[in-house]
Amino acid sequence: MTTSSGSHRDEPATTADEREMLDGWLDYHRATLMWKCEGLGDEELRRTPLAPSELSLLGLVRHMAEVERYWFREVMLGEDLPEMYITEQDRDGDFHLTEAATWAETEPVWRAEVELARRAAAGRPLDLVSKAENHRRGEVFSLRWVYTHMIEEYARHNGHADLLREHIDGATGE
Q1: Model confidence pTM above 0.90
Q2: Superkingdom, according to UniProt (predicted)?
Q3: Domains contained in the chain, number
Q4: How far is CA 14 from CA 1, 22, 29, 60, 106, in A?
C-alpha cells in the first residue's frame, strides 16, 4: 500500500505461518506510525492538540522506541539498559517534550531500536521465555506474548496518532 506521500507499507500476509504473520503485523504498525509523522516539522510533531492529553506524535515515537527496547532487549534478552527518555523523576519523560526534542534526533533512535528488536527476536522460537521479569508485573513472558503485546501497543498508539494528525493538519487515512 502506498501512502499519500508516496511511502510504502507492506500489507501483512493473509496466509502466512505464525512467525511471518506476527512479523508482518508488527512491521505494518511500525510503518503506520512513521506514516502518521511524515511531512511534519518539529513544531507540529511536538504539538499536543488533544487537551488535556499530553500526547504528541514525537512523544509517541519516543515512547515506542522505549517500548521496543524494553520488551525485546531488556525483558526477552535480559539486557541491563539505561532508559532513554524516562527518569525516576519523570516516568512519562518519553512524552514530555522540550524544544530540544527533534525528529532528527528521535527518528534514528526509534529506527535503531526497531532494528535491535528485530535482531533480538530473529531465529528465536516464539515460545522462548524471557530472561528477565517485567519490572512492573513480576512475570516472565514468551516471545509470542511480546510480539502480540507490541502489535497491540502500536495499534493503540496508532489510533492516537490518527487523531493527533487529523487535529494537526486535517490528514486522515487508515
Answers
A1: yes
A2: Bacteria
A3: 1
A4: 15, 11, 15, 28, 32
